[in-house]
């Protein structure tokens, strides 16, 4: 019976992870709408099936956390920044520009945060990477099946006609997920003692889907992540070798950065972009104007981009001349949601997690030690031109919470023994 329950819990975790990536419910229930169509911008807030599914995930997650409440209390006692940030989101209903939106989305971010906490308290980093490997294997299979067998859903039409989106509602989402998938299959293949050919196949298919998605940001980010993975190996070298190597790397990166700035127009043209990043820089200026109208506490969690003629975003939409669904920048959207106070709390959490990630990379001897640093860097990369920071029902926040709490655990010490956590006193 215990084996059946354990298997069911694994299945629940893998399925939930896939749903948190954004597929396949959204694209299926939308009927395969494309960017530019009015229905595309309604998102999942008005989708009853998606709401019910995630409510079920929240409930099951809460039950599983309750069953391991001692681990949960221990984890929460080690880092309170995420709890404070969650508290700001929940209390923002008091000053929200759209209280009804804040109530719904605050419930969503609470459930999403709890699932990330569940991953950290239930599974080690190695187990998390293994689960993500199984999940992305399913995503790969379904994405090819959608594109080949259900092209209305798996391949975009409209302004992005021909670009693959797999089980997601947009090609850029597929691209973002495949960058994570590429990283996961690399890490799993390093530590694997068998089935390496299958892992290499998963890695190859992930890269193929990045190319088929035609997401230029995903292509660039995947190259940068692979470069980071190669460079991060030097962090485990002896100090007498590490210091000069890092000086050389920093000098090289600085030179490349200067070259990129000097040749930015030619580079943008080469990847089909312009200097405004497809209108993003103009949008950011308008977002800044809205931020400074309510800089300290923001507009309430999830309230700014709620939509409708009477919404606060309508003023920005009128000025922009189009209807962006978000700021296309994670930090700006976080500021709109929870204000400067919330941004500061997140910055403190991020700095602590980044420091711990470097420690894990330095002193761990296994492949999973690379994961925290690589994911955190990629999360920041993704949020430069897209918005995926502290969003409800979003895999980036799930993984950030899981990583932030997982790196707080001791390295090379057994943490889980017969469902009891070993705490040194």
TrEMBL record:
Chain ranges of the O-antigen ligase-related domain: 202-347
Topological category with respect to the lipid bilayer: Multi-pass membrane protein
Record's keyword annotation contains Endoplasmic reticulum: no
Transmembrane segments annotated in the record for this chain: 7-28, 48-69, 81-97, 103-120, 132-153, 173-190, 197-212, 218-235, 242-261, 334-358, 395-411
GO cellular component: membrane
One Pfam match: Wzy_C
Annotated localization: Membrane
InterPro entries (alphabetical): O-antigen_ligase-rel_domated, WaaL-like
GO molecular function, one term: ligase activity
Protein's UniProt name: O-antigen ligase family protein
Protein's organism: Mojavia pulchra JT2-VF2
Lineage: Bacteria, Bacillati, Cyanobacteriota, Cyanophyceae, Nostocales
């Amino acid at each position: 019976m215990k084996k059946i329950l354990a298997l069911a819990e694994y299945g629940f975790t893998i399925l939930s992870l896939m749903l948190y990536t954004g597929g396949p419910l959204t694209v299926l229930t939308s009927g395969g709408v494309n960017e530019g169509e009015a229905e595309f911008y309604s998102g999942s807030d008005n989708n009853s099936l998606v709401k019910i599914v995630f409510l079920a995930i929240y409930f099951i997650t809460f039950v599983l956390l309750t069953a391991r409440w001692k681990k949960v209390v221990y984890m929460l006692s080690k880092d309170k920044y995420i709890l404070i940030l969650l508290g700001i989101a929940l209390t923002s209903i008091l000053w929200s520009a759209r209280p009804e939106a804040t109530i719904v989305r605050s419930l969503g971010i609470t459930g999403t945060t709890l699932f990330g906490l569940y991953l950290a308290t239930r599974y080690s980093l190695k187990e998390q990477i293994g689960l993500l490997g199984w999940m992305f294997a399913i995503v790969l299979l379904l994405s090819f099946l959608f594109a080949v067998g259900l092209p209305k859903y798996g391949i975009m039409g409209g302004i992005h006609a021909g670009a693959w989106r797999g089980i997601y509602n947009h090609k850029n989402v597929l691209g973002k997920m495949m960058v994570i998938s590429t990283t996961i299959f690399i890490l799993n293949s390093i530590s694997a003692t068998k089935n390496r050919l299958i892992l290499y196949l998963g890695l190859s298919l992930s890269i193929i889907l990045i190319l088929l998605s035609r997401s230029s940001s995903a292509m660039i980010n995947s190259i940068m992540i692979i470069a980071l993975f190669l460079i991060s190996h030097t962090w485990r070298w002896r100090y007498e070798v590490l210091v000069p190597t890092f000086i050389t790397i920093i000098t090289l990166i600085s030179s490349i950065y200067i070259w990129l700035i000097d040749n930015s127009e030619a580079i943008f043209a080469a990847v089909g972009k312009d200097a405004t990043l497809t209108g993003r820089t103009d949008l950011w200026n308008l977002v800044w104007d809205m931020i400074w109208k309510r800089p300290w506490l923001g507009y309430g969690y999830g309230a700014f981009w709620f939509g409708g003629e009477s919404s606060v975003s309508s003023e920005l939409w009128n000025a922009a001349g189009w209807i962006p669904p978000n700021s296309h920048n994670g930090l700006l959207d976080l500021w709109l949601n929870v204000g400067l106070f919330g941004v500061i709390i997140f910055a403190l959490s991020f700095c602590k997690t980044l420091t711990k990630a470097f420690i894990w990379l330095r002193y761990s001897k296994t492949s999973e030690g690379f994961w925290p640093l690589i994911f955190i860097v990629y999360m920041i990369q993704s949020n430069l031109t897209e918005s995926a920071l502290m969003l409800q029902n979003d895999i980036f926040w799930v993984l950030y919470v899981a990583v932030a709490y997982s790196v707080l655990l001791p390295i090379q010490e057994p943490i889980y023994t017969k469902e009891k956590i070993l705490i040194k006193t």
